[in-house]
Amino acid sequence: VQLQASGGGSVQAGGSLRLFCATSSGSIFSSHDEYWHRQAPGKERELVAGITSDGQILYTESVKGRFTISRDNAKNTVDLQMNSLKPEDTAVYYCESLYLDENYWGQGTLVTVSS
């Protein structure tokens, strides 16, 4: 399974970005759990948001109410809409796909939020 993340960029605080993750999972994509993680400079990678195969959604506390994760099983994509961005959201964002205890990672896309 290959994942391709895109949509990162530079934005001022309060702005919005939408991240995209395209997967090569094919017809079994709907059975995958999908996650977005991020890693800020000098920090460990952290889970940002996830959406399971049965539609359960989770967010880390710091992004609740600002980020929205969604998936399109027909297109094999998972998106992350990020609103009201803050400088502390600056990080490389990675998408992850989990299926039968096998996980797959995209290459990361950089998000920079300036104050």
* Fraction in helix: under 10%
Order of helical and strand elements? EEEEEEEEEEE
Total strands: the figure is 11
Q: Please give the largest β-sheet.
A: 7 strands, mixed
What is the CA-based Rg, rounded?
Answer: 13 Å
Shape: globular
- Please count the helical segments: 0
Can you tell me about this structure?
The chain is an all-beta fold and 115 residues long. It contains no helices and eleven strands. The protein has strands at residues 3-6, 9-12, 17-23, 33-39, 46-51, 57-59, 67-72, 77-82, 91-99, 102-105, 109-114. 32% of the residues are buried.
Q: Which labels suit this protein?
A:
115 residues; mainly beta; 54% strand; globular
Walk me through the topology:
Blueprint: E1 3-6, E2 9-12, E3 17-23, E4 33-39, E5 46-51, E6 57-59, E7 67-72, E8 77-82, E9 91-99, E10 102-105, E11 109-114
Parallel strand pairs: 2-11
Antiparallel strand pairs: 1-3, 3-8, 4-5, 4-9, 5-6, 7-8, 9-10, 9-11
